[in-house]
Amino acid sequence: MMPYLTLYYGNPSSMHTFGGQVGKAVKTAREQVASLLGAEPSEIIFTSCGTEGDNAAIRAALTAQPNKRHIITTEVEHPAILNLCRHLEKQGYTVTYLGVDSQGRLDLDEVQASLTGSTALVTIMYANNETGVVFPIEQVGAMAKEYGALFHVDAVQAVGKIPLDMSSSTIDMLTLSGHKLHAPKGIGALYVRKGTRFRPFMVGGHQERGRRGGTENVPGIVALGKACELAESHLANISHERQLRDYLETSILTLIPDTVVNGSTKERLPNTTNIGFKYIEGEAILLSMNQFGICASSGSACTSGSLEPSHVLRAMGLPYSVLHGSIRFSLSRYTTQDEIQRVIEVLPDTIARLRAMSPFSNDDATWLQEQEKATLAK
Q1: In terms of domains, do 273 and 368 share one?
Q2: Range of the domain at 162
Q3: Same domain as 261, residue 201
Q4: Residue 129 is part of a domain; what is its CATH number?
Q5: In this predicted structure, what is the pLDDT of residue 301?
Q6: Positive/negative CA dihedral, 80, 81, 86, 87
Q7: Helix (H) or strand (E) holding 222
Q8: What was the pLDDT predicted at 305?
Q9: Cα–Cα dist 34/198, whole Å
Q10: Taking the model in full, what pTM does it have?
Q11: Which residue numbers are catalytic?
């Protein structure tokens, strides 16, 4: 992307040579994104991030169906979806929030029972950003079609981790974000199936075939295109991440007592594990590991500054002793065996030290019961 920050600075909408140079680069990037998704280039709209893509898709779906006022989503969505749905409730929309079981899995019978003739949109993430659990997207999409509802999928976590083919999918709109694919922050894309009614969320110029106004972020778009190309070529080797993740997970469960994996270990992303360390706070674990150059998270990066327990893990009904001590490890194609080994070397002593200092590490059952009651009551 560097040449498009320093040399090729034209506006892709311009007719002159500088515009033509960058216009070709944008076209190539659109083709690269489409290839990763199994889509047509004309079905790709460039955005600034996943949050914009989610907002654009949901608002477009509702605008296209003004007589339908019902939305279906889940309790474990990213805040980009949940906060928008809460906002829409204040505007008179009815939102059904589907629950998940203790393994973070969706109940298809509940999806079916929630659909009505007034359902305008079903919006469900492809894979959860905290647990990595993958939802039965195609089955949900087929159900939505039976009721004439549009189907939007937040696939920010899934794109580049599992193969996708929009040409044979039940998905109408799909969101992706560049920085989850090793592209820069501040660039994303929205897939909109050909023929889907779409009214722009960002009104302005004619860019993106009139579907997203505003001068294109050419360096970001070029970088996203290349990132998608690299991600597509890496899909054949995705087992590398899965093997390292499984080794990390097995080692932690073997070496550290009172630890559990949060979420289903069957249908999940190959690069994600969420582990609960009982009787200690997740923030303390993160701060301690950070001293060794090890970075993990206790929830969505968009909300991890909060001391509140993860809304995803709460929706799964996890006990307090696990809820507050859970952290997520995310791997990439650049993660090495040595890096995983470093975590395994550092973590057991870190957990033991923190538990020794913890006010509730000595099986204080009464205290834990009270905390769990307070947590579930929120």
Answers
A1: yes
A2: 1-235
A3: no
A4: 3.40.640.10
A5: 46
A6: positive
A7: helix 218-234
A8: 52
A9: 18
A10: 0.91
A11: 302
